[in-house]
Structure formats: C-alpha cells, structure tokens
Amino acid sequence: MSSKQVSLEEAVAQIPDGATVAIGGSSLSRKPMALVRALARSSVRDLDLVVDVGGPDIDLLIGCNKVRRLRYAYVGFELLGLAPHFRRARQEGSLEFEEWTEYTVMAGLDAHIKGIGFLPTRTGLGTDLLTVNRSFRLIEDPFTGQSLVAVPAIAPDVALIHVNVADRAGNAVILGDAHIDALCAKAARTTIISTEAVVDEAELQRYGRDIQIPRIYVQAVAEAPWGAHFTACAPSYRVDMEAIEDYLQAARQADSWQAYLERAVLVSEEARVSSLGGAERLIGRLWV
Predict the structure, then answer these.
(1) Domains defined along the chain, listed by start
(2) SS3 assignment, position 159
(3) 197: which residues sit within 8 A by CB, 6+ positions away?
(4) pTM score, two decimals?
(5) How far is CA 283 from CA 42, 53, 229, in A?
(6) How far is the C-alpha of 72 from the C-alpha of 70, rounded, in Å?
(7) Which pLDDT score is estimated for 287?
(8) 194 near 32, Cβ under 8 Å?
C-alpha cells in the first residue's frame, strides 16, 4: 500500500480558502490540535467550520481570523468557562453562526454519506431550534402524518481528525470514545488525520476492531506526538488544565494573545512541547 504520510504543514496545505472543514474530537477530548495549530499558522482564510462539540479548536481558529462561518452544537471550555474568542464573535456578530444540536450535526453528515439532501428526525420538535436555524424545515411524514424536522446534508470539503495510532496508508485506530470522527471521515472529500504514532501495517492489525477509520477514507497522515494537547487523548494523557488556563488568560487581551501565538502556535510542535518542559514533564503531569 502506498504511503500517505506527510508533515503537518503539507497536510493543511491541501485546504483551500473558503473550505468547509469538519473537526473531530469533542470538547476537551482528542481534538486535532496539532493540525489546528498548523492551520492557524497557514495563510488559509474564510473557513466554514462544522463541529458538534467544539472547544479550543474552534476558539483558536476564530482568534486567528480564519473563520467565516460556524455550524455547531456547543463551543466552550466546560468547567473552565466560556470560549473567549467565540463569545466575542458571537456577541459582535462578526461571523456567520448556525446553531445545531449534536444529533442534527450527525444527521447532516449521515445524509451526505447516504447521498441524499436531508434526513428526517424528531430532534428539535417543541424547541426553538427551527426558529434560530432556518436551515431546518418542518415536514410531514407521508406515511403517518407526524411532524418531522428535515436536517440538510452537510458536505465537508475536509475533515481533521486526531487518532491514537495509524499506519502510513491511513488505517487509523481510535481508543476510547470515537465521538463523530468516523462520520466526518466518511462524509469529507479529503480526510486528514494526525496520529500519536505511525506504525507498520502488521502492528496496526493487532488492534482489530479499534481500527475505526479505514484507509479508503483517508488522504493524508501526519505523525504528531502530543497532537491533541492541550485536550486529552485517552487512554494516554489527560486534559492539561495548566495549559488551558494559560490560553484563557492570554485570550483576554490583544497584546497577551499575540505573545501567546508567538510562543505556542507560530512555532513547531517540537518547540512548543519543549517550551512546556519537554515530553518527560508532560508525561509526569498528564500520563494516565
């Protein structure tokens, strides 16, 4: 099998301006942060982002002026509070926002995978969802006469996903909760994965059913140890609360934000890990 392994920079170079990008992981769990940081360093702009439960991935890209539109169910930092750049953009109306739910995001991706324009669901009935999001339509079930919500298909140009282990052909292993990553990979025209480690095919086969994303859906593989940091990557490392608090503190003011970008985003992944005390210190603090 041919190798699809590339660098982080080569991976995100495949993303054009204005692309619709679905991002895997959920909240503070297994976000493709190394790919997101590489995207933040790139010249790409006007992205249309799709996420079910967003966190630092979405907030960072908004803070770096990469986003034109966002379809989401939630964006925040859970117990540590709101996402500062997302909140400001939402209050100012500087971006186009569409409020979805976790299930409707999944239904939209699934509709595109199935090659149809929408999927019907009861999700959203009796709520304000159809008021705040005019993309949905209230329809009648032709067999029962019941009211249903028609969820439009979501067709990502690109999916960004972080996995635990992958081989060079793109077969990818997710340990723990896979969230909606397999749906993102199947729906996207181009799927880019980062992985904690690239292994050979024979070793990967030992994971059996944990190979959640087959190579037929993957166009690029980038090795990125600590690639989900500062979110968690179960079962290897926990959420880095220190790094999140540093991010949130920096995001409060323009000058501190620029300084943060220069030391934590506009550098190589190796330099970033080194600035945090190196892999050994991270292992000591975060290794499960």
Answers:
(1) 8-99+155-227 (3.40.1080.10), 118-152 (no CATH)
(2) strand
(3) 164, 165, 166, 223, 225
(4) 0.96
(5) 29, 27, 12
(6) 6
(7) 85
(8) yes
